């Protein structure tokens, strides 16, 4: 196939497709045998999409007359889909490292919250920060996520709790969408906490009557494009009734429902999400058996966050039960001031050790299923013809090293690629020049 193309990856020891037949997601059975090609190559076209995947000699013959902007010899290496982080809070100001000592001394999440820490500490600093300050720290965080293999990241607002600051955060996310080589799914999370001086009902009314109409207006004008609506459905925060009202109002303006539920207390959030047609629900440490059944039936993804359970010493989400019941299980880092983790490989490792997932299940959860949780599994999450050329190349002959090694990914990951363009290259791999 003659012509010019963006990228050729050739001679990979293992090419981990994850999916090979256009699956939207993988359940437990599908994840048991991930699609994988030995001694394989792939081509990414000038449009940033994968043009061909196959055995190295077949691709070599098929593209014998073609030219490429970049060729990478992957001999002895593994190629995987770019990782998808399905839950992050990466736009904020104000460091909460001091709270870690409080947590280690036994203070609960809600005790820190009531002492003036937690979300309200971050809200105060985020409101004071300029848009430029927020963008610069956000950009740095995204770059760290990308170096750890994430090529599509869900990014929430939620540290404003007033219209002005929530919009400031969403503008920062929009700016990164337009200017950075990384995929972003943006989430309005104005119902992250009840603002000081308001009741939950007053906050709910403000969101429905003021915030969401403004988001609809900005979407129509092309200024801000938000993908998801999120609410922290929790005892002492937003109850089931308020959560229902906000999520439905968000859905009515075209937002996907993707919210926090059943984290600290059983709230029947999973049942509500399944009823409303939620794309995904996160946390679920306290989910009921009925909620698990409802999510499986509704094809509502469970975004599990092993870092949160680990750092807050919470009960681990019931990943095994969910998988056995037919729930679509995805993973996220929950990066935020309370769970400071940029690395999806570390998230996968924790999921395997603490939530008893297999390595295959964890990789599916951090690729195709996380993409499904964001409504993007038609374009992301696997290495298939027609999908976006988002890829990770690791310096190992077996892909499992990405999960097996706990930390130290700067030595393992050689390249991170978005739309066929190298966006991170390990310094031992030479210069970033194309040829």
List keywords for this structure.
8-stranded parallel beta sheet, TIM Barrel, alpha/beta, 2 domains, 8-stranded mixed beta sheet, globular, 23% strand, 16 strands, 435 residues
Tell me the layout of helices and strands.
Layout: E1 3-18, H1 28-31, E2 35-44, E3 50-55, H2 56-62, E4 66-73, E5 78-81, E6 83-85, H3 97-104, H4 109-114, H5 119-128, H6 131-147, E7 150-156, H7 163-179, E8 183-191, H8 200-221, E9 228-231, H9 240-252, E10 256-261, H10 269-276, E11 280-283, H11 289-298, E12 301-304, H12 306-312, H13 319-325, E13 329-331, H14 344-355, H15 359-365, H16 368-373, E14 391-394, H17 401-404, H18 409-412, E15 413-418, E16 421-425
Parallel strand pairs: 1-4, 1-5, 6-7, 7-8, 8-9, 9-10, 10-11, 11-12, 12-13
Antiparallel strand pairs: 1-2, 2-3, 5-14, 14-15, 15-16
Helix pairs in contact: 6-7, 8-9, 10-11, 14-15
Could you give a short account of the major beta sheet?
Answer: 8 strands, mixed
The CATH topology of the largest domain comes to TIM Barrel
Proportion of residues in helical segments: 25-40%
Number of strands: 16
Radius of gyration: 21 Å
Helical segment count: 18
Any guess at the CATH architecture of the largest domain? Alpha-Beta Barrel
* CATH class placement of the largest domain: Alpha Beta
Number of domains: 2
- Class of secondary structure makeup: alpha/beta
Oligomer: single chain
Low-confidence stretches: none
């Amino acid at each position: 196939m003659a012509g010019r193309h963006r990228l050729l990856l050739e001679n990979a020891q293992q090419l981990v497709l994850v999916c090979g037949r256009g699956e939207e997601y993988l359940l437990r059975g599908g994840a048991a045998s991930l699609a994988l090609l030995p001694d394989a190559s792939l081509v990414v076209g000038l449009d940033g999409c994968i043009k061909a995947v196959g055995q190295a000699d077949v691709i070599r013959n098929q593209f014998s007359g073609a030219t490429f902007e970049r060729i990478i010899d992957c001999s002895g290496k593994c190629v995987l889909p770019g990782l998808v982080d399905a839950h992050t809070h990466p736009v904020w100001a104000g460091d909460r490292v001091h709270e870690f000592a409080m947590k280690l001394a036994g203070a609960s999440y809600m005790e820190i919250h009531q002492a003036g820490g937690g979300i309200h500490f971050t809200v105060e600093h985020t409101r004071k920060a300029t848009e430029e300050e927020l963008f610069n720290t956000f950009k740095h965080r995204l770059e760290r996520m990308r170096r750890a293999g994430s090529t599509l990241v869900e990014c929430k607002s939620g540290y404003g709790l007033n219209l002005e600051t929530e919009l400031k955060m969403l503008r920062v996310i929009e700016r990164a969408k337009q200017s950075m080589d990384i995929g972003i799914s943006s989430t309005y999370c104005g119902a992250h906490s009840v603002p000081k001086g308001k009741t939950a009902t007053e906050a709910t009314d403000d969101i429905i009557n003021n915030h969401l109409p403004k988001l609809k207006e900005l979407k129509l004008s092309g200024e801000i494009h938000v993908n998801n609506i999120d609410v922290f459905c929790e005892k002492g925060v937003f109850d089931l009734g308020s959560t229902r009202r906000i999520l439905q109002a968000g859905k009515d303006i075209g937002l996907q429902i993707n919210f926090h539920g059943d984290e600290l207390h059983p709230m029947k959030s999973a049942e509500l999400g399944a009823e409303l047609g939620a794309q995904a629900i996160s946390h679920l440490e306290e989910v009921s058996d009925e909620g698990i059944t409802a999510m499986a039936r509704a094809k509502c993804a469970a975004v599990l966050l092993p870092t949160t359970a680990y750092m807050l010493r919470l009960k681990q989400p019931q990943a095994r039960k969910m998988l056995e019941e037919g729930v679509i299980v995805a993973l996220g880092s929950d990066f935020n001031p309370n769970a400071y983790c940029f690395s999806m490989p570390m998230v996968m490792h924790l999921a395997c050790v603490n939530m008893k997932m297999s390595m295959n299940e964890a990789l599916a959860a951090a690729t195709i299923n996380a993409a499904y949780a964001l409504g993007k599994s038609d374009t992301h999450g696997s290495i298939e013809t027609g999908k976006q050329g988002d890829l990770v190349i690791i310096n190992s002959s077996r892909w499992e090293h990405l999960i097996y090694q706990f930390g130290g990914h700067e030595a393992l990951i050689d390249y991170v690629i978005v739309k066929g363009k190298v966006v991170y290259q390990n310094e031992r791999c030479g210069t970033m020049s194309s040829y």
